[in-house]
Each structure stands twice: as structure tokens, then as C-alpha cells.
Amino acid sequence: MYVLTHNFSLYGEGFLGTVQLTVYASLLALGVLMAGFRVAPVAPLRAFGTAWVTVLRNTPLTLLFFAVMLGLPRFGLVLPFFTFAVLALGCYTSAFICEAVRSGINTVPVGQGEAARSLGMNFPQTLGTVVLPQAFRTVIPPIGSTLIALAKNSAIAGSFSVTELLGTYKPLNELGYNIIWTFVWIALGYLIITLAISALFHVLERRWGVPR
pTM higher than 0.70 for the full model? Predict the structure, then answer.
């Protein structure tokens, strides 16, 4: 226990950093918008949505971090490393949320959209008022799994001078603490975060999910 008690503030900073990365990147992950682009009747929007998902889903997250951290400053965009990390994580996660939402949209009967259009609704109204509320019920579990993966993916940010939970092992290792117990407490921190996300989405699924 002394590894944790003697370095509680360090673990606390790392834990808070991981929580902040997860929350901010989740808010930035506009997968719903990209899913709307992918099913839009406008060809350029569908092409943009498809390209976004294809590129980001097939790009290693570490490579995306390098592109954001080293590439954007060359174009004059200089931001804190934490902001760059949120941007990389949010964009990467948005591709997976987009596909989860699109799969949910495909479960909504075509007649629902046709009925909405017959009432004079345009595409944004049909999508936001009729289709997405029904699709949301089926995509709660996959979105929850994606956000759990996001919390664990945030560990990559520690390699780019961003304070997060996994990175706490470096100063503790230099101070000579037992590496096994160092990682035990790190793993417990990640377990707390992922269980909290899982519990939240379990509540959402029980309230709004499709009955089995």
C-alpha cells in the first residue's frame, strides 16, 4: 500500500488527467454528425463521411498522435499538448462512433423515413426527430464499448508529455518503487474508470435500450 499512499497525489493527477482526456475526447467525437453525413442524400457529404471513417479507422492511433502533435504546428497551429491529445483521441474515436450510429440507423425501418418525408420534413428533421431517437436505443452498448476503449487509448498521450495515469510509472520507477505494485495501482485506476463508464451505459441501456 505504501506505493499508493506515499504517491497518492501523483496517482491522483494521473487519474484526473485520464478522466479529463476521456471526457473531453468523448465530447469531441462527433460520430453522430459523421453518421448523418454517411446517410445523407447529398453525395459530397456522403463522400466526406466515408473518407473520414476510412482514413481514421485504418490509421494507427500512435501515428495519428504524431500527425497532430508534429504536423499541425508546422501549419502555425500551436496548442497545448493536452489539447492536441484530445483532438487526436476525439477524431479517432469519432470514426468508430460513426459506424456504431450508422448501424443503428440501418435498423430503423425505411418506412419511418418515408412517412416523415410525406409529412413535409426535410432530411435533418427526419434524421433528428424520427430516425436518430429510434437508432439511439440500439447503439447504446457499442458506444459504451467504444468509450471504454477510448479511456484505455488515452494511455498513448503519456508518451507525448501529457499527464495521464499510465505515465505515472515513469517517475515512480526512477524513485525505485516496486514496478509490479506501481502497475497494480495503475491498473486499478483504469478499472475504476472503465467500470464507471460501463455502469453509466448499463443504466442508459436499462432505461432506453431495446428489450431482449
Answer: yes
Q: Which residues contact 182 (CB under 8 A, 6 or more apart)?
A: 3, 168, 169, 172, 173
Name the residue with cell 495521464: 164
pLDDT tens track for 24-35? 999 887 777 888
Query: Which residue in 131, 167, 133, 209 sits closest to 18, CA to CA?
Result: 167
Cell of 80: 497545448
Handedness of CA 177, 163, 15, 72 (dihedral sign): negative
Neighbours of 64 (CB within 10 A): 19
- Does residue 211 carry a pLDDT above 70? no
What is the per-residue pLDDT across 95-117, written as a single tens digit (0 to 9) for each? 999 888 888 888 888 788 788 88
Coil/strand/helix, residue 94: helix
Cell of 26: 468523448
Rounded Cα distance between 209 and 101, Å, is 14
